[in-house]
Amino acid sequence: MARRPRISRTVPALRRALAPWRDAGDRIALVPTMGALHDGHLALVKLARKKAERVVVSVFVNPAQFAPHEDFATYPRTFDRDLGLLQKLDVDMVWAPGVPDMYPEGFSTAVAPKGPALVGLEDKFRPHFFGGVATVVSKLLIQTGPDFAIFGQKDYQQLQVITRMAADLDITAKIIGAPTVREKDGLAMSSRNVYLSAEERQTAPTLNRVLRDVASKINAGRPVGASVKQGLAIIERAGFKVDYLEARHAQTLEPIASKKAGPIRLLVAAKLGKTRLIDNIGV
User: Fold this and answer.
1) What is the pLDDT of residues 155-213, one digit of tens each?
2) Residues assigned a catalytic role
3) How far apart are CA 277 and CA 7, in angstroms?
4) 116 Cα distance to chain centroid
């Protein structure tokens, strides 16, 4: 039977637990999460296990990345269930700080990312978001000092922001993006999928189908703008309220007009009922 992961809840306890592994020369991989784990998270953990001798999974619902009108209070919290899943994967440690441990009284410093954080995608609709993400992820990387940090490509703009931040701040951890894990019908796995009604759940895979259709048209030589516009119309007819459907340069996330201008990433964010879904694919 797999051993129960060690749980650390304070920074001093975390560092005491990590020290023997570092002294032994063990490589450490970090998988940052907000809990409510699903198969997408577990795929990140499995990749981390392949990369390192020791795997640390952080579980922290970060208030700094939620606006007042968003779902911080109701975000699913399933720590005991999460712990059981991580035990089956032989995770070495769960880093589970409380809000006062991560943001103690008097906390007054924040990371303000630019570059891929300011390209008019998620940042246009959630202007607070990447500052909160960059601040908490920089703290997690400093606290754990991993050799590798594993993030999913589903949050593609976030991955680009974190990769840029780590490089700019000389954080030594190698940032690794893992492919999006999907349900059998193509829906990208997300902790927020539990909010979908049965009817909405049947509609939700439309996002991925449209992304694949738009990518196919672009690869066939059709104009990027027209292909995206057609996809947008299909998503809206399916009942989504679309924040964006965009073709962007895969590295810079700047707008891109043709495949010749560089690798393309298609990105979409849309609300279905009260649930906001995001997805992306490469072209």
Assistant:
1) 999 999 999 999 999 999 999 999 999 999 999 999 899 999 999 999 999 999 999 99
2) 41
3) 31
4) 15
